[in-house]
Design goal:
It is a single chain. The protein is mainly β. It has one domain. The protein has no helices and 3 strands. The radius of gyration is 16 Å and the shape is flat.
Length: 78
Amino acid sequence: MFARGEILAHDEVTLESGVTAETFHGRVIERSRTGARSAVITEITGRAFVTGFHEFIFDPEDPFSAGFLVGTAESAGR
């Protein structure tokens, strides 16, 4: 939302869980960088419960074993 210009830093956003009706509050508290990329530091408050654990394993020949970005031109192969 911040990257799309829909909110500004320190604007609070409230979201409601579609499952439990719990509300979560989030805001961007600071702009940052990670390497050459722009990033943000966020603050999120609310109540949630652990529902499971997941372990990722990678094949050494997997071209994405070092990570990938979701929802970017890079992840779409562009």
